[in-house]
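It is worth pausing here to work through a concrete case rather than discussing structure prediction in the abstract. The textbook approach is simple: state the sequence, then state the predicted structure, then interpret. We follow exactly that order.
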Amino acid sequence: MSWYRCLAVATLALLAPLVPALAQGSDGQPPRIALVVGNAAYRTAPLAQAAADARAVADVLRQGEFDLVSIENADRPALEQALATFRGKLARGAQVVVFYAGHAVQSRGRNFLVPVDAAPRGPVELARETIDLDQLIDALIVSRPASALLVLDAARDNPWQAGLGAGKGLAPIEPIEAIAVMAPVAPGRTITETPGRTNPAIDEWLKAIRTPGLDMTTALTRTRDAVSRTTRKAQQLWISSLPPAGLVVTPTGRPVATALNTTRAITTAPPPPGPQSDQLGPYELSFWETVSKSQNPDEYRAYLEAYPKGRFAGLARTREQFYRSRMQPAATTQAPASTAPAPASATSSPAKTARDCDDCPELTLIPAGSFEMGSNEMFEFEKPVHGVTIARPFYLGTDEVTFAQWDACVAEGGCSHRPGDRNLGRGKRPVTDIHWNDANAYTVWLSYKTGRKYRLPTEAEWEYAARGGTTTSYPWGNSVDKEMANCVGCNAQPRRQASEIGQFPPNRFGLRDMAGNAAEWVADCWSENYRSAPRDGSAYAPAGCRERVLRGGSFNNDPRYLRSAARFKYESDVRFYTNGFRVAREP
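Step two, the predicted structure:
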């Protein structure tokens, strides 16, 4: 331990009696305390993602009921005040999370946080304009937390480090009892921020801490492994040491805005009253009816994970094994789709719009047709452009599923997760903080309620419907026109949140918010390109799928990610505050 730290800790130790001893929350649990700082608006070295990442982290911590101190684009006085407020909340035995996204510099083996108004080009400016990280760490040490994590998303190249010497990135941080430190890369290394692309370390950590009941020790190891996998070992997460067990950001069993006890099930439809082996409930029957004619083994696996002792479990296992064995020659997996019947004649054509119940989403009929899917504009995973034929018409939600429609599913027992609305209101705003399994539970409930077959659209169906017969980048053209969608840079007055449905013009098929507002789950598994994509409009669904596709972009994305060809991925059992969906239905 450095002489500076010894002096600082000794000084703080004199104040230790002022720290509440073994404090407890109102429910008898250890206090949960958090500090989140997102500094992006630097004058000479602005950052694209730091503030948005901090907001996302703050949202998760609020839902985990942490006593949160949060600040964005803080100058030195504001950052000092936030740190003082945070120190005043610290208590012995607390569970603590600290997240800092912004610039930092190092000098003489110590790290310094850089406020947005600072320009520490030499030792004088360093002392006058920055905040010594040791001030924060020492306050944590003296408070004696039960378990604490400090996330430093600050290992970036900057214009000041060269004037201070001492290499680049963060200086090494020694292991500290009960306090773990996580950084996207190891000390002495930096990462380059790419506009429009998020940091995989923060993305994966957010996914992990959103998982109900997941201890931080497991969350960190899961994050480390996921970063290594997704970057093909190009980026390696650095962790000083694992924190003591007990720090869980998203607890299980909360009455609002937390998930089911399991996070791996393919559906969240609840079982009927009584043992599943004794009674066939309506949700199980409806689920079985939606998959019973499928030739996709993953759909039978979904039934088995939802109802392992269900009435049709034996048959589901047999069919899963049979169809999985048939999938071995990959070239033949999509052959059956060519037998799709021709569209109905004009004399018996279905209605242009439909609504199957008062609480059901309005649907718009999408005609059969062909189109060129994908794009050569930007990303490799949008290639190659390939022809797709949608052989039959289908219905698609005119709008994204709203909070009001979702709440009806919760009220009737079809959906178990009731997401929070971030104090923005429910009603006609698109429901968000929904994972792929949640969305499928909703379609199961709608299918049972209406007697119709609801599902998520396939990725091809979604893009075909979004384009509405166009070949341009956006449904309305090739330029980013103002007030056509809700996104970062799409509006005269930034919104930074999902808007009520119907605020922007529909596309040529009459669908609204296919670009922006909430990102939308589709049925497909993620693929790194379209080389193996079906050409008949069906879903890409290989065995062992964990990541699913999102389309349309969200209010939190810039216009590039609202293009009709743009696509994203997320793990199917992880919720995020920008993610929602719309439904498809057979005619």
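Step three, interpretation. Residues 45 and 159 are 7 Å apart (CA to CA). The two ends are 70 Å apart (CA to CA).
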